Amino acid sequence: MKAVLLPGEREVRVVEREVPRPGPGEVLVRTRASAICRSDMSLYTGNPIVGGDAAGRGLVVPGHEPAGDVVETGPGVTGLALGDRVTGYLAIGCMRCEHCRGGRLMLCPRWKCLGFDVDGGDAEYFVAPAVNCLPLPDELSYTAGALLTDMVGTQYATQKSLAVGGATTLAVFGMGPMGGAAVLVGKALGATVLAVDLLDERLALARELGADAVVNSGSDDAVARLRELTGGRGPDVVVECSGAPPAQNSALDCVRKLGSVAFVGESRQTTINPSDQIIRKLLRVTGGWYFPIDQFAELSRFAVQHALPIERLVSHRYQLDDAPEAFRAFDRRLTDKAVFTWD
């Protein structure tokens, strides 16, 4: 089979490998869609943000957002059959600790990440634990299924935890793919959504996805404009998706007193002023990272019932042979959300 490897230093190899075989409790999936995520760039450059010794050395097939068809089951697998359409849950846990038993496999102290620690979906086939292969409704395409987990799933879990609903004014900073997913989820939950970004083309897409108003933080004072749009009060909830320190600070500055801020965009270091930005506003500040595995049935029903146009978040589609071009363009930000497809 063909598979992608990322040895680091912005090198991409498409190699031939043996089709893997599923072990006990595992299934073999024929990949039909696998998305490139901004976190994959850490593998591309050789500085992985998660993963063990194998990550970033070109030993592991990337791709933590895959979907496809079950083509073989290993010993002891129940509940999955050949031909089942599935999407992959990226966190592989021990299934014994308190976090795994609570559904949050990504908090397991011994967790491994699909596409970082173990081979992921940027290949014609991948193997995963049966518990990580989540049933994909017929109403959702393979591409939608791939994006449903990391992006839409993260936003759904985050916004649900913050009680986003019809009475909420939600501001979203960063209109990349994750921010776009935040707009889709927020509108489906009934919120008034305000989108913030530096790029007019991304703000135009945010309007298409349902944003009620947009703010260009490059030409406007985003904090002042968001307060103006909310009658001087500030948004009830802010979801920060860019990971940029200025946006993170603006999120804390603009939100109303007793409001909530979720940091979703990855960031290694940011300087804030807790006294003025958090303590004296009595804010709730949380991290938004993936979703509990037992929430997937609810999440997939939500996507179907609200007819979420998830594929609208995809900017480019590639064949696996074009992986060098795909990663190069993604690294240069010539694409937003790119997906390998086998349609």
**End-to-end span in angstroms?**
16 Å
Q: Tell me the name of the CATH homologous superfamily of the largest domain.
A: Medium-chain alcohol dehydrogenases, catalytic domain
- Just name the CATH architecture of the largest domain: Alpha-Beta Complex
Largest sheet: 7 strands, mixed
Basic shape: globular
How much is the average pLDDT? 96
CATH class of the largest domain reads Alpha Beta
Instruction: Provide the gyration radius in Å.
Output: 20 Å
* Total number of beta strands: 17
DSSP helix fraction: 25-40%
Summed up, the domain count is 2
Q: Identify low-pLDDT runs.
A: none
Plain-language structure description:
The longest helix has 20 residues. This protein has 343 residues and is of the alpha/beta class. Helix 10 links the parallel strand 16 and strand 17. The protein is globular. The model has no long low-confidence stretch (mean pLDDT 96). Strands 3, 4, 5, 8, 9, 16 and 17 form a seven-stranded mixed beta sheet that branches. Helix content is 27%, strand content 24%. The chain folds into two domains: 167 residues, Alpha-Beta Complex (Quinone Oxidoreductase, Chain A, domain 1), CATH 3.90.180; 136 residues, 3-Layer(aba) Sandwich (Rossmann fold), CATH 3.40.50. It contains ten helices and 17 strands. Helix 3 crosses helix 9 and helix 6 runs parallel beside helix 7. The two termini are 16 Å apart. Keywords: Metal-binding, Oxidoreductase, Zinc.
